[in-house]
Automatic annotation (TrEMBL):
Requisite cofactors: Mg(2+)
EC number, as in UniProt: 2.7.7.65
Protein's recorded name: diguanylate cyclase
Residues of the GGDEF domain: 185-318
GO cellular component, one term: plasma membrane
One of the GO BP terms on file: cell adhesion involved in single-species biofilm formation
SUPFAM superfamilies per the UniProt record, alphabetical: Nucleotide cyclase (SSF55073), PYP-like sensor domain (PAS domain) (SSF55785)
Known catalytic reactions: 2 GTP = 3',3'-c-di-GMP + 2 diphosphate
Domain of life: Bacteria
GO MF: diguanylate cyclase activity
Amino acid sequence: MTHDADPMNELHWLIDMVQTIEVGLVVLDRNFNIQLWNGFMENHSGISPNELKGDNLFQRFPELPADWLRQKMEQVFLLKNNVFISWEQRPYIFKFNNYRPITGRAEFMYQNITLLPLSSLSGTSHISMIIYDVTDIAINKMQLTAANEQLQQLNQRDELTQLFNRRHWQELVQQEFARFSRYQEPTSLLLVDIDRLKTINDQYGHVAGDRAIQHLAHLIGRNLRSTDMACRYGANAFALLLHHSNAEQTLQLAARLQSSLAQTPLQFNGEQLTFTFSAGVCPLDEECNSYDLWLDKADETLAKAKMAGRNQTILTNG
């Protein structure tokens, strides 16, 4: 009698474990009809096993990515291998609400899925889906990724102007110089320096000077194309790397910036502060055999504009 009871007890324990385990368990036959739907799935879907028994998975849940998931399952039947689906490939298969208190900000449950072949004496006739709730892991990883991206942005940006800082911008210039040697596409540097910023600092204070720097940085940002890159090059200087821009086009941009600055004076403590800038334009050509030389030529051209009386733009060798 004891020996007869043991298999029954083991079966009872097995059924109890399947129903109470904290992972989803779904068993499908070869036609994707539902044969088992455990307690985890019932709790999160609100649908009992009795309601689903024998129903086709894809007909009962039309919101599932049917073509994609069916292909994964056919792989399991054919190759008799496990298939793992990460939340990073697809955040979820079953869109269950997230009820975890720690990750309450997540709208839905992030899931890892394992597909397993279930073999009988006649071959692989069923497939098991194991659904793991990995919301905590997913949220933590996404928060860490976002924090790293934010830190990277901070390391690349000038705090006052939010343009690129000089170090990162020069890395981009190096890359562009290498690209030019292969493709010879027109590219130019435009260096801009605020004229007599010290006068603004002395007369109105350094806060006004900072506002002037921010004001010009804002105008530069408004006039940039998506492919252009600008940085705060010095205390009151800016550098622009302009893709697909020859000398004439770069001179036109400098003129637009000068016009914008003249038409939109800085508003500071009820006063309108007007100021100008000097600029140097240096197109990249084959005579520049290093990116350092390219930058040096642009610096020299800017210096010539300052010495020539300020509020003007000079072209390299022009």
